[in-house]
Amino acid sequence: MRSGRCAVAAALAVLVLAASFAHLYLLQPGRPQVPALQGQLQRHVIDHDGRRRSYWLYQPAGSAADAALLLALHGPLGNGHGMRELTARRLDLLADRHGLRVAYPDAGAGGWNGCGVAGPQRADDVGFLLAMVADVSARSGAAPARIHAFGFSDGGAMALRLALHAPGRLASLSMAAVRLSHISVPVGASGAAMLPPMLLINGSADRFEHAECAVGGGTGVAAAHAMAAWLSGGDAGALSPAPHESPPGAVINRQWRGRRGSLRLYLVTGGGHTLPQPYVRYPRVFGPTYAGFDGLAAIAGFIAETNAPSQATAPSLGASAAAQHGAGDYPMDD
């Protein structure tokens, strides 16, 4: 009898150890390389649509009252603080170097309402993000000169929805690991919605499923083609697919322009549901993190282009050659 109990206890111990190992190996991100920062991070709470909502705001020392504002939207099951850590605080470093503020909003309990589902159980996240911008303006005493948005996964879909439903408010839109099936277009007087310049960073091996909304797109090449076809008003005849023979570790650069806006794509061959960067490895359950291409530097350069086009400079976050020149073959960190 005692031997049977011992066997059960040993089996449970093995299961606990195996589960702990799987949690550490699959679900825990790598330790980020944290930069030295000069600004201040504060958490703020506002009331919107009968709910208490929160966000984190990073403010560089000595920033102007009307400094540009970057909205950084986290992915599913995350929060604003986690978004700051999974971007290795490099967005704060970007703020320090270029004098802009960074807001890290927290989604509600059910995640971002990127599909715009109505009902008492789903939050008005477009309204919340606009209320957050107004709160930042009230605290600084001036409205931001420009507003940029960057979203990861479902946060990217939410940022896209904000751009669609608040036309003219965003100066740029950057997305990573986004399944572009969230295109729900409000038709205006011209019959077409205009989007800000967009940057998309996707992995070709991203198999992570997202909630779907309006039109299918998938990830990787399919996602870019869905958006590019929409930008061109449905005419995808001129689109050329990214070469499937590209080896793992290649970064493919494509760009499209249409009557509704422009799209720049960085497709990481073999990349997973991650933001490629050399600073932090995403949990392995999301697939390989591509360390040879600095996606954060690409986003920084993209924001610099749209924030002050006449004074845009090269990315200054430790950018790799791939981020500055657009393509290359580099090792994968899995």
TrEMBL record:
Residues 313-323 have a biased composition (Low complexity). Gene3D superfamilies: alpha/beta hydrolase. Residues 313-334 are annotated as: Disordered. Signal peptide: none annotated. InterPro entries: AB_hydrolase_fold, Plant_Biomass_Hydrol_Est. Keywords: Signal. SUPFAM superfamilies: alpha/beta-Hydrolases (SSF53474). This is Polyhydroxybutyrate depolymerase. It comes from Pseudoxanthomonas wuyuanensis.
